[in-house]
Design brief:
Elements (H helix, E strand, L loop, with lengths): L1 H35 L2 H5 L4 E3 L2 E2 H19 L5 H10 L19 H16 L4 H9 L12 H18 L13
Helix pairs in contact: 1-3, 1-4, 3-4, 3-7, 4-6, 4-7, 5-6, 6-7
Length: 179
Amino acid sequence: MLRNWWEKYKKEKRREFFERQKKIQDELNRYAWDILHSDNFDSSKNNMQHGTISVREHSIQVARQSVALSDKLGIEHSRRDLVRGALLHDYFLYDWHDIDRENPHRLHGFHHPARALKNAEKEYELTDRQREIIIKHMWPLTVIPPMCREAWVVTAADKYCSFLETVHLQKGHRRRRKK
C-alpha cells in the first residue's frame, strides 16, 4: 500500500514538473518567438559557454530558470522584459574560448555584457529593463549592481545555471573543439 502511494506521488510530481516546463516554454514562445527563431540567436549554438553547453542552450536555460525563480519568489515584474532580457544576456555572438588576435577575449566576463547589449540593440527594440538585464547580469564583475527586479532575477538564474554547467551537473550537446 505504501509503495503504491509512493508511485502515485512520484507520478503526480513528474506530471506537475512537465506541466510547469510546458507553461514556461509557452511563455518563452509568447514573449520571444522572434529571438528564439532568429539566425544570430540560432548561430550561438556553435559557441560554447560552460563545459558542453552552447551559448544558445545556456541562454534558454537562464530564461527558463528566471521564470521559475520569479514564480517561486512571487515578485511583481514584467514577464516580457524578464524573458527577453534573459535570452539576450549573452548575445555576444562569438566563442570566447577561441583565440582571436584582433579581438582578444581576455577578461570576457567583464566585457561581454556591453558586447551583448550592442548586438541586441542592432536587432531588437529593447526596453530600459531589458538593457539593464543585459548590461548588469555579470554583477559583481560589473561594479554597478542591477536596479530592477528582473535584472536581479536573471543575474541569480545566470549564476545558478553557470554553476551547474561548470561542474557538469547540467549536460549539453557535445561539440568537438578545434585544435
